[in-house]
Write a structure and sequence with these properties.
The complex is a heterodimer of chains A (69) and B (154).
Chain A lengths: L2 E3 L1 H7 L4 H8 L3 H9 L6 H11 L3 H4 E3 H4 L1
Antiparallel strand pairs in A: 1-2
Chain B lengths: L1 H34 L9 H19 L8 H5 L10 H28 L3 H4 L6 H26 L1
Classes of the chains: A mainly alpha (69), B mainly alpha (154).
């Protein structure tokens, strides 16, 4: 069950670069790139850190694909 | 990724130089045994190459270590090929290490089987056991590196 996310959209809305977001949550830029592409599923901790940056609940950023169908 | 590639290739060069040194040492010792003399002559070239490369590699690797907070003592007991800057790299490293471990499970039995034929070519290639052991390390390092690159760029 792939996880889809709104990180790219939220990052643009908050005017953050991939590097900015990476620095805020303590990962590499490549991890943010992979996350936005959907090729990397983050840990719960990272997902919660991202949610905290965007001030949104985790479940509104990360969704299991079948839930959206 | 650059770090893993450089460190993996450096490790392979070290294994080759070690194999060269030990095979050269074996050859020197064999000469002593065959001639039954108590004079020992060692070819210093492999040792100088290994020591020279090791010093340069140690300085470079320590200066470019991914975690700059590590002291020399902490850094020196870790495999330099590992790059675990964040959770994704930790997962990739775990995956690559698993692949390297699996490669041992394939190469070691094959090399064990090849030792059955060692008496047939012992005279032609007396240092075969040394190169066989080095090749298991080289193959597993190559497997680690390629798996790491594939997972990282996925």
């Amino acid at each position: 069950m792939p996880l889809i996310n709104r990180v790219k959209e939220l990052r643009a809305r908050h005017q953050l670069t991939q590097g900015d977001l990476a620095a805020k949550v303590g990962v590499t830029r490549q991890t943010i790139i992979s996350l936005e592409k959907g090729s990397y599923t983050p840990s719960l901790l990272l997902a919660m850190q991202i949610a905290r940056v965007f001030e949104e609940p985790v479940e509104s950023i990360f969704t299991i694909e079948e839930e959206t169908n | 990724m650059k770090h893993v590639v450089i460190q993996s290739i450096s490790s392979i060069i070290l294994y080759v130089l070690m194999a060269f040194l030990f095979s050269s040492f074996l050859s020197d010792v064999s000469t002593v045994i065959e001639t039954d003399r108590f004079e020992i002559e060692f070819n210093l070239l492999p040792l100088l190459l290994l020591v020279g490369f090791f010093i340069i590699w140690t300085i470079y690797s320590f200066k470019t270590r991914p975690n700059q907070n590590l002291s020399f003592g902490q850094w020196s007991v870790r495999m330099t090929e590992f790059s675990e800057v964040d959770e994704r790299e930790q997962i990739i490293t775990a995956k690559a290490t698993k692949a390297a471990y699996v490669s041992f499970g394939i190469t070691v039995p094959l090399l064990m089987a090849s030792f059955m034929f060692y008496p047939l070519f012992e005279n032609a290639l007396p240092a075969y056991p040394i190169y066989a052991l080095a090749s298991t390390l080289i193959i597993s390092t190559l497997v680690y590196m390629t798996t790491w690159i594939r997972a990282y760029t996925h």
